[in-house]
User: Fold these one by one.
Assistant:
Number 1:
Amino acid sequence: MFEELNQINSCPKLFEFYTASELWTDEHISKQMLSFHLNEHIDVASRKVSFIDRSVDWMIRHFNIGVGTRIIDFGCGPGLYTIRLARHEAAVTGIDFSRRSIRYAQEAARKENLSVSYIWQNYLEFKTNERYNLVLMVMCDFCVLSPSQRKIMLRKFHNNLHPGGAVLLDVYSLAAFEKREKTALCEANLNNGFWSLNDYYGFQNTFKFEMEKVVLDKYTIIEADRTRTFYNWLQYFNPETIEREFTDCGFVIKDIYADVAGSQYYPESLEFAVVARKK
């Protein structure tokens, strides 16, 4: 028992494990995530609906979105952004790892008679010969990726864009990193049964990598017949570090905002958004 507890509370090497497939393809967890996406009043999985509406309105104006604008949304979830953009007659593609979310998005588009292309796939593995005017990755999805995975995505964005095309994404800031604390928690049915339909004991360990500005939330879920571990990595940025990554992959940062609704940037913001253009 001591060795098991020691393993549960141990910190792995930086980005040593990647468990997105287990998180997004689990039948019970994906159901919980979809319910968070669709809750209009909380900022979990997706932003509040009032923010999404404001964000899309700003995107329409800022990127001059209309008939023929080709947009691809990486990590589209249940289509909360793609549906709204398609209403403005943009040609929209959404990619997500959750089959449940993709099915919901497809049905939502069908009900409104909107032509949206949805792809059920890990976006790290996505390939296409199509070219787009705008790439989206919202809800700080970029932050869950390792440096090598981020480079894969930025090169993918570059290849997927028309010359002069834009990327819009948001990231967590160093101000948010400073607010995170190391923690260790154990509860029966941790997070109100989020992790399994069956009874379980859940351990949540939060580790901080101070030099690299990374936080790991490690969840160990112990049920009667199995034990699973999920690793949620979060990279935190300042404008200089995010610019270096974009510049290395052939982009120029054009604008920095406090969020993907175009709010004015300020250094104390817990997150910020960047607009980058393909050179």
Number 2:
Amino acid sequence: MIPSSFLRPLALSLLILIISCKKTETGAPGIKAAIRVSAATVTQQPITEYLTFNGTTVYQKKEDIRANITGYITSMPYKVGDRISKGQVFALVRTKEQDALRDAIKIDTSLAKFIHPITIKSNAGGILNVVNVNVDDYIAEGDVLASIIQPQSLVVQVNVPYEYRGAVHLDTPCEILLPDGKVITASVIKALPTMDIASQSQTFLIGVPQDEELPENLNVEVKIVQKEDAGLLTVPKTALQANELLTQYWVLRLVQDSLAIKTPVKPGLKNDSLIQVESPGLRLNDRVVTTGAYQMQDSTVVKIQNQ
């Protein structure tokens, strides 16, 4: 018979051995699997920030063709959209006095020279955007027969809030973005010397190249350079993280592509995809986490997933 004093130590040893085996099978506690992330390289690229305003196309120069006599229109071949040159005949007019002379000509043929139609000529060149009369219409002296727009006078009118007035001035280069995606390079040509009392904005005029044919009252966007910088490091905007109050910013810098280190940064200019950052702990060609870093702690083990 085995003494009980011998069995107790043996049972305790077996219990410890069993527990040790279970720990070995399940793995060491406290070791977490690496978090899968995406990464990008720190670069140094020029960044330009723009001010964007809404604008409207406007023709500055419009002229009216007015009647210089009272009578009936006998000929007028133009319609809306037609081009007309300065000095070109717009319409022919017959007066009541001329109608009365037709019987008198039978007696005195020398009066025939007075019954020729009277011409009304255009006082400007451009495109007819309004035509108010037709053949056989009666017109009075001074009536507006048609209106002409001059295509070369097309501008974009932009209202700029007063706080941005320092960034917009004569000859400031800008880009006009049309609704179809086309971009036109232009510049500021005039500043109107008044402020809108309600919006406290000043009107600026953007010149449109003469080879661009745009309709009036077209809504466009105007982008004007506000700031430019080419000297700072840049990272993808998705790499930048911040606290809830937006008072602290940082990126997660990768060490040997396996350890994410929280690195404080100061953000600068940004565009659609990149943002400039200043940080003594960040260098050109470092790698930073771009996705998968939400609420990640400092010094976290990571694994870069295939991109």
Number 3:
Amino acid sequence: MKLFFLNTILHFPNKIVRVLPIAIGCLMVSCLSAQTSPEFRGVWVATVDNIDWPTKGDYNSDSQKASFIKLLEMHQRNGINALVVQIRPCTDAFYPSPYEPWSQWLTGIQGRPPSPYYDPLAFMISETHKRGMVFHAWMNPYRAEFNLFNSSLSATHITKVHPEWFLVYGDKRYFDPGNKEAQQYVTQVVADVVSRYDVDAIHFDDYFYPYRIAGKEFPDELSFRKYGVGMTKDDWRRSNTDSIISKLSFTIKKENKKCQFGISPFGVWRNQDKDPIDGSRTIGAQTNYDDLYANILLWLKKGWIDYVAPQLYWEFGHRIAPYEVLLSWWSNHTYGKHCYIGMGVYRANSNPAWKEVNQLPRQIVAMRKTPNMKGMIFFSSKTFERNPNGWNDSLRFNYFKVPVKVPEMSWLK
């Protein structure tokens, strides 16, 4: 783990840094050799609420194109080889869709096309591939209205066409995951993208059933009474999520056998107090299985997904969910599929642990030393614009100095 001390010397030459004695020559060889094998080096580009792209209030197509190219070139300089771009943040589209309206975060008003007209998805795929990087199309499955109080909804939005498919929870509107017609609709939306665009993967994040709101039950009782005969509500909810993942897996491979399907779940599958055998040594965290009703391990075992990218946004030694504990846990639960660790660069300087220059480098080194790990994805793109803790330099001149390809998946050849 001494590699990160060398990194500090290399990339902060104007600072006086105390380091441990190390064999620099041997360490440099170790560092570079670790970079030569295929590795997924991705970045999430969030479009919801204009988090990463396009800039809020920038509705000019030429300006959007220029800013996306600038974003791409920054990541290319840093050694990134994959972009995971949110193209369907809230049952809307960053491409001309026969099912859903143009996104309000692209043009300011939902349903309004870009001006001058262009196809952002086709443009982003082309520019990404032109630079030798892969493009994963990130789609949110069930979120339909981001904020009930200030959303811009077009008359053709699916919540207007089929209001019976949706449920309100907190300040958002969601598809009812137990509604079979809604599941089929989401599947059609995904199939349309895979059939028309040269995406390397379809990527879903952690929002299936929404995160719990204290004191509020998700309002799906009517669907449960209709469809959940003979099951507990928890098992029925998990079966609904299993069902959509299974449908999507089949549909994606039917449209394009080489297109991957990946899920980026919350970092904790189950706590050990709920599952002494397969649970992780974490305490009190919400979990995929018990709170979000996402049985990730089943999907890996069944081969429904090609990769998993757990969001491990915690530091080493975190009191509830330590990075090192969860890194080891996911290493033992990949079931032959690829695992890319989601790393929280956005946490930079948020607490004493994330003020440490070596927090992220240590996480990369630990991940590379852990069996069954195939790479990482950083959340999110905009953080790199300010080069927090010099981490852009660490990637560019050290950890990602040698360009590599993303790992191949033998089962897709």
